[in-house]
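Fill in residues.
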């Protein structure tokens, strides 16, 4: 008896649907289960995305120079004033117009490629693999009468092991 085409399609796609469901649930739990950060956590997070004006090789959060201390204080003041993280980053960048202080590239213009290209490569790779491996399963293969006869002949030709057979040694 062979399974109906709809049954085999369900059996073939069920693991993928289950995997998708697990990923969606994990992302939802990871995103929605987070509490709002405290002001200190926000200040630390913002300070990690802004470059030190004097040392250039460190974030403001890890530098002890007077200018980085002043930027950290500026961040704290702007948080207290009620600014959003993006507004604070833009404000700090506007205070130092001749320096590129933002460590994270913006998500617009040419810089958007930094964010978009990796995602496009992943999508292209998954699509390529899906196309490549789509034909690996040949549906509808079943043993023919010739195959069954061949197996029966092979089983009949097998010598009888008798008393010394592997099943009797236990």
């Amino acid at each position: 008896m062979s399974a109906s085409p709809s049954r085999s399609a369900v059996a073939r796609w069920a693991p993928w649907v289950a995997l998708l469901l697990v990923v969606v649930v994990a992302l939802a739990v990871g995103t929605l289960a987070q509490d709002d950060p405290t002001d200190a956590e926000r200040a630390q997070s913002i300070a990690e995305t802004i470059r030190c004006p004097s040392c250039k090789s460190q974030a403001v959060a890890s530098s002890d120079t007077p200018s980085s201390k002043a930027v950290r204080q500026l961040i704290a003041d702007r948080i207290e004033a009620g600014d959003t993280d993006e507004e604070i980053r833009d404000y700090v960048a506007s205070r130092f117009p001749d320096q590129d202080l933002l460590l994270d590239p913006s998500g617009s213009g040419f810089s958007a490629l930094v964010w978009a290209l990796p995602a496009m490569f992943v999508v292209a790779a998954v699509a390529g693999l899906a196309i490549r491996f789509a034909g690996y399963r040949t549906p509808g293969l079943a043993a023919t009468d010739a195959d069954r006869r061949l197996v029966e002949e092979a089983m009949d030709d097998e010598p009888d092991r008798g008393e010394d057979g592997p099943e009797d040694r236990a």
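The chain has six helices and no strands.
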